Prior knowledge:
Blueprint: E1 2-7, E2 11-12, H1 14-18, E3 30-31, H2 33-43, E4 53-56, H3 60-72, E5 77-79, H4 98-110, H5 126-138, E6 146-151, H6 153-157, E7 170-174
Parallel strand pairs: 1-6, 4-5, 4-6
Antiparallel strand pairs: 1-7, 2-3
Helix pairs in contact: 2-3
Amino acid sequence: MKIYLIRHGEPDYRAVTEKHYMGYGRDLGGLTPAGIQQAQQCARRPELQQAQVILTSPFTRAMATTLEIARQVAVPVKVELGLHEWQPDRTGTLIENNQQVSQSYAQYKRTPHSRPADFPYPYETADELQARVTAVFDQYVTQYDCIICVTHGEVMSQFVHQDQFDYCEIQSINYPN
């Protein structure tokens, strides 16, 4: 199955910051006007017309990107919980600010496949992230030949070995390899 992995457009966190949303509340941020344009440009890419379904992360920035793509690629859209971004705190209760998220991410980048026993935040390891996303893809591999997956940079890095992705960057993979 061919999968077009697409990173969401440029996020806009102003509204959630003004409301003092923390933790998962930050994931309600949508797209900037530039992010909407990025998604609209991405949607016009001819290779996406091959897709039979669009899978999207439940985070608002990914769903807003998907909305723009779905306007051009007329296929069903399915929101998949397992396509969300990497988790800096799997409990969802310990991290209270962006500094702690950054601390968790820095440790994750140093030790992506294991968590030090004395580290205060139980972040999601790379192996856990990949297993979570693979479980989603496995549900579709016998039903479809080509899908679009709108997700996040850290998710994409588990399948495409690069560290950074531009907003609305498309990477094609064959799944399973």
